[in-house]
Amino acid sequence: QEQVVESGGGLVQTGDSLRLSCTTSRREIRNSGMGWFRQAPGKERESVAVQTTVGSTAYGDSVKGRFTISRDNAKNILYLQMNNLKPEDTAVYYCAATLKYYRDINDYTQIWAYSYWGQGTQVTVPS
């Protein structure tokens, strides 16, 4: 069973930066479509940033220009660099992986596209 593990969450102030990391236990992330999702209390899980195996990316409208998804294939780590954090970014952030190929990058923003999920890491930005 594939394990996906996130790390790097924490309590930060408005305007601060934070970098989340994600790794997988069995398959290399270079062979996987990867995504970051988040879920705030009382809200549905939403796509934050996704990246295909060839490096194409897509971002949620609320994080464009502030968040960056990237991967270090040599270290088998996926990152989410989050800058200029806001209280509305407070959520549990999940990393997800899929070995399936989707022609439309928008498919990678969908929860159903992913087979493997991490347990989540909390990011809190007090108002």
Q: Can you write the helix and strand succession as a string? A: EEEEEEEEEEE
Give the structural class: mainly beta
| Portion of residues within helices | under 10%
Radius of gyration: 13 Å
Low-confidence stretches: none
Q: Quaternary state, please?
A: single chain
Describe the protein in words.
With 127 residues, the protein is an all-beta fold. Helix content is 0%, strand content 43%. The chain has no helices and eleven strands. The strands form two sheets. Strands 2, 4, 5, 6, 9, 10 and 11 form a seven-stranded mixed sheet that branches. Strands 1-3-8-7 form a four-stranded antiparallel sheet, with no helix packed on it. A hairpin with a 5-residue loop joins strand 5 and strand 6. The radius of gyration is 13 Å and the shape is globular. The model has no long low-confidence stretch (mean pLDDT 95).
